C-alpha cells in the first residue's frame, strides 16, 4: 500500500471474463540524472493464464508509463534459476545488465540478474551495456 | 554559525543514546542519557530518550511521568518533538502527538515543519476538521506551495465522506469553489489537483462540469496513468447516458488493446443502449445499423490477428455479442446454432489453455448437454482414448504438444462436470471415472519432469487429481461410506508431494480432515500456503471454525493471536499510508484507503477473532481466581460501556470461492451459501460476545465485593462503589437476559446448517451451543452469583431455604454436561467402523462450559469467603459452643464437589479418546481398506492414519490438560 500511495499509476491488474485475477504488475520510478528509470517490483500471472502474452501486456504498460515519465530505462530483478522468466524477459527486449550475488535470501541464498531495457530517451542505449563483474546487494545504487 | 555548532554538539552527545536504543540496549541508553544530563541539565531531548528507554523496558509509570513533564513544558525543538512522537507512537497515544505539535506551533506559528507534522498528526487521528485548519495555516504561511492548499481541499472532501448529507450541501460545494478558484487563476500545477477536482465533481454528480474538464485543456494534462482520461470520460458519459460517446471511446481503446475484456463489455453495453434508445425513440422496428457495426468491428479485430498472436478478447467478444442478442431475443443476425459454432471455434483455438474452462463456462448455460457434447466432437480422438502410459518418449517438443492435448481434455472434463454429467453418474461409473482420471493424473506427472518444474510451479495434471477426488466425494455423499473420503485424503496427500505449491490440494485436505474431526495436520498445511496480510482476513475462515471445535486449544491461541495482531497492526499502518498519500498528492487513493480501513475495522473475522481470543484466554489462562482476574485486567476491555457489535456494519470479507469446484451452478450457489453463513456467523458472534461479557461482568462483580471490604468505614467512597457495583451486577443480569432471549430467537440454527462440501463455508458451533445444556448452566450459575451478592449486601441472615435452592439446582444440573455415549470415536454401523468426531465436539463444548462455570464459582467464592471471615470472627467472639457452618457454605461446597466430580468424569472421557490410553491402534482398525497394491499408496495410507492418531491424541491431551487446571481451580474454591 505504501507503493500504491506513492506510485498509483504503476499498478495494473488484469481480470478475466469470469472475474478472476489473471495477473498484476507493480512498479515505481526512481533515480537521478541518467539513472532515472522505471522499476518492476512485482509481476505475477496466475498459472492457468500463462502463455497468453499477459506478462508482455503488463510489461508494455509499465514501459509506456515510464516513457511518459521520461525514464531512461526499465529494470527488474529475477532469480537466475527462473529460466522461464529470464527467457520471457529476453523475448520482451530485456538483457542481463549485471548479476547480483545472493540477492534473494532463503534457505539457500540465490543470485539475481539485473535485467534492463533501454527506453527511447536513452538513444545510445548506454544504460544496458553489461557490467563485466557481478556486484553484491550492498553495492546496488 | 554559532547555533549550528551548538546543534552539532548536541547531536554528538545524543548519538550514543540513539545507538543504544537502536541496539535494544535500553539500560545502557538510560545510563548514557544520565551522563549527558549531568553535563547539560536542560537538554530536553536526552530526557525524552531516557523516557523512551524506560517505556521500552516496561517501566511505564516512570517513563510516562517524565514524558508528561516534558510535554507540559511545551517543547519546540525538532529533535525533541521527533523523539516524543516516537514515544507516543509506541504507546499508541496518538492524540498526544497532535497536542504536542499544537503547543509547539503556538510558540512558533511560522514554523512550517512543525505545522506540517501537526497536519500529519491529525491525519493519523482521522480528524478532518483539524486537518483542514492546519492545512490552511500552512497555505497562509507558504501561499505558493500548492500541495498545502489541496491538503485543505482534500480534508474538506473527507469531512463530506463522514457526513454525507452535509457533504452534499456544504463541504463538497466549498471544496469545488476552492479548486475552481485555482483553475480560474491558472494556478493548477499537478495532475493530482485536476484529479481531485474531478473527484469533487463526480461525488456531487456534476457530470456536465466533469465532462467539460475532461474534454478541455486540463483533461489533456491527465497523462500519468494509462488510459485514465479516456476511461474517466467514458464513465462520465455513461452516467449522462451519452452512449454514442461511450461507444466511440471504447472502440478507440479496443483498437489500441483488443484483448481488454472490460473494454469489450462496455463497448457492447453502449452499443446495445444505442439500439434500445433508437427503438424507443422511433417506436419502430429494430434498427440494426449499430448491431452490424459492432458485428463487423469484432470480425475486423479477429481478422487482424490472422497472422499474429491469437488473443482471447475478440473471440470471446463475439460469443458475448451473440449471448446478448439471444438474451434480448433479437434475431436479426444469427441463430442459436451460431453460439455453438463459436464455442467450437473457441475450443479449437484456446482449448489447450486451462483458462479456456472458465471462459467457456460463462456461455454453456445457453446450450443443452447434447449441444455441449457437439462442441467437443471434433476432438473425440484425443478426448476418449486413455493415453498409453509407457510408450511416450520425452522429447521436449513432443512433450509440450502432449501437454496441450492433456489440457484440452481437462477443459472437456471440467465442463462436463459443470454440465452436471458427473453428479448423475451411478456409484460404479463415478468410481470408474475417478480411477480413469487418476491414471491420467499419474501419467501427466511426467510433463513436470523434463524440463523440471520449479517448486512454486504446479503439476500440469493436478486438476485431474482434484476432479477424481471430487468424484470420490460425490460417492461419499451418496453412500455415506467413509472409505471414499479416506481414499480422497490419501490421494491428495500423495498429490501434495508432487506439487508442493498447489493450494487447491491443501485447501481440500484441510476441509476433509476437519470434516473427520482431525485438526492435527491442518496448521502446517495452512502455514505452507503462506497466508499473510489481508489473506488473514479473507482466508482465515478455512481453519477458524475448526480449531477450537476440535479441541486444539494451543493452536487456537496462536491462530487467534495472529489474526487479531494483523487487524491491530493494520489500524496503525493504514494511517501511515494515508500520510504518504497526502505527501505524494495521491488524492484518489485517500478515499480508497479510508474505505479499506473501514472494511477491515468492521471485518467479521476481526470481531470473531477478538471475542474468541478473549474467551479462550478465560479457559487457558485461569487456574485460580486470581489468575482469572489478572487475565481479565490484561484484556483491556470495558464491559460496563462496551456495546454489542452492530451487525449492519459488519463486513464479510471471506473469500468463499477460493476452493475450486466444477459443480453445476445450481449446486454451488455461492451467494446463497454466503447469505446463510453470514446470518449464522453473526448470530454466533452475538451469542459469544454476550457470553464473554457475562463472564467479564461477573468477574467485576466479584472484585467489587472485596473492594467493599477494603473501603469499609469510608462511607463516601463506599457509596460511589455501590453505584458502580449496582451497574456491573445489573448489567450482568441484563446480559444474561439478552443471552436467553437471543438464544430463543436462534431456534432456526438448532439444526446444523449444511454448506457445499468443497466450496462452501463451514458451520459454526451454534447448534451444539443451543442444543446442549450450556445456556441453562450459565443461567443457573449467574443466579448463584446474584444470590451471593445479595448475601454480601444484606448479611448471612438473609439466606432462606428457598433461595438456597440455587446451589442444589446447579449441583444437579451440572451432570448434564457429561456427554453420554462418547466412549470411543470409532463407531460401528452396518458392519463398518467409522471415525465419528461429533462426540469430540460435544466434549469440547462441555469443557468450555465447565471452565466458565468455574470462573463464576470463583466469583461466588469471593463473596462467600468474605462472609465467612466475618462469620468466623463473630463466632469466635461468642462464648457458647461453636455454631454449625451456615447452610450456604455447606451447599456451596457440595456444588463445588459435584462440579469437580463432573470435571473428573469429563477428564476420563477425554483420556479414553486417546488411542494410546485405550491401547487401540487406529492404524490397525483399517477404517478404510484401500485396495491399491502400490507401495507408495500403502505408505501414504499409513501416514494418514498416523496423522489421525496423532491429532486425536493431541485433542485428548489438550482437553485433559484444561480439565486438570479446572480441577485445581475448583479445589481452591472450597470454603
UniProtKB/TrEMBL annotation, chain A:
Residues 1-120 form the N-acetyltransferase domain. SUPFAM superfamilies: Acyl-CoA N-acyltransferases (Nat). Its EC number is 2.3.1.254. It holds the Pfam family Acetyltransf_1. Signal peptide: none annotated. InterPro entries: Acyl_CoA_acyltransferase (IPR016181), GNAT_dom (IPR000182), NatB_acetyltransferase_subunit (IPR051646). PROSITE patterns: GNAT. Keywords: Acyltransferase, Transferase. The keyword Transmembrane does not apply. It is an enzyme of class 2 (transferase). GO terms for cellular component: NatB complex. Gene3D superfamilies: 3.40.630.30. It catalyses: N-terminal L-methionyl-L-glutaminyl-[protein] + acetyl-CoA = N-terminal N(alpha)-acetyl-L-methionyl-L-glutaminyl-[protein] + CoA + H(+); N-terminal L-methionyl-L-asparaginyl-[protein] + acetyl-CoA = N-terminal N(alpha)-acetyl-L-methionyl-L-asparaginyl-[protein] + CoA + H(+); N-terminal L-methionyl-L-glutamyl-[protein] + acetyl-CoA = N-terminal N(alpha)-acetyl-L-methionyl-L-glutamyl-[protein] + CoA + H(+); N-terminal L-methionyl-L-aspartyl-[protein] + acetyl-CoA = N-terminal N(alpha)-acetyl-L-methionyl-L-aspartyl-[protein] + CoA + H(+). One of its GO terms (molecular function) is protein N-terminal-methionine acetyltransferase activity. Component of the N-terminal acetyltransferase B (NatB) complex which is composed of NAA20 and NAA25. Catalytic subunit of the NatB complex which catalyzes acetylation of the N-terminal methionine residues of peptides beginning with Met-Asp, Met-Glu, Met-Asn and Met-Gln. Proteins with cell cycle functions are overrepresented in the pool of NatB substrates. Required for maintaining the structure and function of actomyosin fibers and for proper cellular migration. Belongs to the acetyltransferase family. ARD1 subfamily. This is N-alpha-acetyltransferase 20. It comes from Lymnaea stagnalis. The lineage of its organism: Eukaryota, Metazoa, Spiralia, Lophotrochozoa, Mollusca.
TrEMBL record, chain B:
It holds the Pfam family NatB_MDM20. SUPFAM superfamilies: TPR-like. Belongs to the MDM20/NAA25 family. One of its GO terms (cellular component) is NatB complex. This is N-terminal acetyltransferase B complex subunit NAA25 homolog.
